[in-house]
Amino acid sequence: MPLVKDRAGWLERLCAAMSPGEVAHLGCTDSPYTQELLATGMLLHPRLVRVAAVIGFDVDASALDLLSHALPDERFVLADVTVGVPGPERGRYELVLAGEVLEHVPDADAFLRGCAGLLAPGGRLCLTVPNACCPKLGLRSLAGRESVHPDHRVYYSPRTLERTLRGAGYELDAIASCSAPVAGRAGQLIVNPLLQISHRVFQGPVGDGLIALASARSNPPSIAS
Question: Is the Cβ–Cβ distance between 102 and 191 less than 8 Å?
C-alpha cells in the first residue's frame, strides 16, 4: 500500500488532473474550524480552486458564508447530499472529493449514494478518512488518551472502507495511507520516521489517514506518492 506523505498536495494534483472537468468538493469549509484554517492558510479549498474548477459543497450555511466572502469569485452550494442532490448539480462532476467527511455522517450509504448522484458518467469519487490502523492510535491508548474530532462517529480501516464503498455500489480502484502534518518534536524525530521505516519494510497502512479512489470503471487508476 502506498504512503502519501503530503495529503493536501496529492489532492491538489488530483484536482488539477481533472481540468477542464469540474470537481465537487464536499465538506469544503472544514467546519467548525473554517475561520482558524483560513487565517493560518491551512484550509484545503483555496488551494484546490487555484488549480481546477472546484465547486464547494457544505451543510453549514454560516461557514459557507465565511468561505464565500474569502473567495468571492468561487461558486458554493449549500446542500446535504444524504437528503438529495440539487437538480443542476446532478451528473455534472468528473470528480467528487469528500475529504475527512465520511467519518462524520450518520448514514454512510446515503451519503455515498448522494455522491454518486453528483458524478458524471465515468467520473470518480475520492475519499479521505482517518485510519483505524494507524499505530499512533495504539500509542495514545497506551498513555490513556484518545484524541478525536468532536464530530467523528467512526474509524475506517482499509478493509472496512472497501466494504462500505462496495455496499454503496462502488468499486474500489486504489487505496493508500497518508501522513498528517506532524505536531511536536517526538512526532518529528521519532514516531513518523519509525512509521516510514515500517512502511518501507511491510508496505502497511501506517499513515494517519486513508485515501481511496472509487468508480465503476474496469481499468482502475493507481495512487503514487
Answer: no
